């Protein structure tokens, strides 16, 4: 008995450390591939980490800190063998919104706010994983996800335009930022050397984007850095550069924030948790399907949370999975999480041994990296398909997009969640229902609006309700049943609810059923049910309705309900079989 218990305990403990389980089964033959993939990945981690840090409103060094520690944490707690985590453009607008509004331009305060958001996001994700809420992001439909991601992409793009053109602006919000940028361009404030460097970097990235052999970001950033250093553009032409990075590794630090910052940090952290897990779960499932290795979404949420906690307590900021760096790792031959460990250690080695390597990296080139990534977030083709097949979902996507673009990332995502809940409830709030009849030559009973030739059993209304019964639709259910009775061509003696689609009943709906039964009884009509699921029947029993509806009111099939009615009332009825 003790052996069985210890095995169960070990299995439960190891379930939350999938990376450790992988390392215990690690094959030596995988090491060369993981080493090479990790080194190749490093060439992407450095410029992208610095670029996304600046896009998030914090100094570039913290982008490398947010790369090193989360990769190590995810290698231990993450279930996916190939996923690469780190700073991401989809989170930049959310982080920037909080940092700009509450940091007062102080870099130390900015990283404290960003790190606190990472801690909040980490706690939310870990708790959600532990209580098995990994399904939550599935409540956001594809059009809504497209809407808020397109809005975030536009927000990120607008925030980087001033850096690309070589000037600065003082404006809050995407629309105000765009207007201020356009005014600065019209006033002739473009710094042409910076713009040429940034535009050239962006052009190279976009031209090489589809190449699997040539790392476009690396080539573009190295070219820009070499050009600025060789031509002394930072001195002679005034091109802004990153400068030397502080030497050393990230240290443990608790991000202290003021009481006034608590609410925006918590809201921002929750928004980050939602967006990052939505992105991570989609990417993780895609690679799990490709590799044939199942990934538990709850475990994925816990792994993402652990990586964010590590980032928050080691001078980083919120991170997510990367749809650009993960394919690089895969194409380079990554086998396991060791690839991420190698990449993290290589970045750490750079900070210790060569902090001046990026001194001539132009900020316009970093802006180009972020803009290229933001462009990659934009979804248009599938929205065109959605518009063709269901326009109202397309317009939902547009509303979410406009919300993020006008209100900002955090309020816009809040709007997206509200719309998602409304969309989720709408089909259940106003569901489809049908009166059923018998169609010659077709088995079963079918919607008489689809089959006008369908025959109806005299005195019997077969009513189908295509949704759970709950507080929002209970009154509508009763009204539609009464309307069906009133529209019957013959005097109604019995109503049978075809209840197979009814998967749940709440207290409000149960009370509405009792009231409907009283109304029908007063009119001499009996209320019965067919194909009601046992769990729903169990709920009716708990609600005390089985004292009103005895076993004779429930039938296993619609056919059995029709036959019982015919036998009870001696109705002349011929039920043709399928020919």
What report would you give on this structure?
The structure is a single chain. The chain has helices at 2-15, 18-24, 31-55, 61-77, 89-102, 107-130, 142-165, 174-186, 192-207, 216-230, 233-236, 262-291, 297-313, 325-331, 338-353, 363-377, 381-389, 391-407, 409-429, 474-486, 507-522, 534-542, 558-569; strands spanning 85-86, 320-321, 433-438, 445-447, 460-465, 494-498, 526-530, 554-555. The protein has a 6-stranded mixed sheet with strand order 4-3-5-6-7-8. The protein is mainly alpha-helical and 579 residues long. Helix 7 packs parallel to helix 18 (391-407), helix 12 packs across helix 13 (297-313) and helix 20 (474-486) runs parallel beside helix 21. The N and C termini lie far apart (62 Å). The chain has 23 helices and 8 strands. Residues 1-10 have low confidence and may be disordered. The protein folds into 2 domains: 2-240 and 279-380, no CATH class; 433-569, 2-Layer Sandwich (Transcription Regulator spoIIAA). The radius of gyration is 30 Å and the shape is elongated.
Q: Which strand-content bin applies to the residues?
A: 5-15%
Overall shape: elongated
Gyration radius, in Å? 30 Å
Q: Determine the mean pLDDT.
A: 85
Structural class: mainly alpha
Distance between the termini: 62 Å
Described by strand count, sense and barrel closure, the largest sheet is: 6 strands, mixed
Number of H- or I-type helical stretches: 23
Fraction of residues in helices? 55-70%
Poorly predicted ranges: 1-10
Tally of structural domains: 2
Total number of strands: 8
What strand order characterises the main sheet?
4-3-5-6-7-8
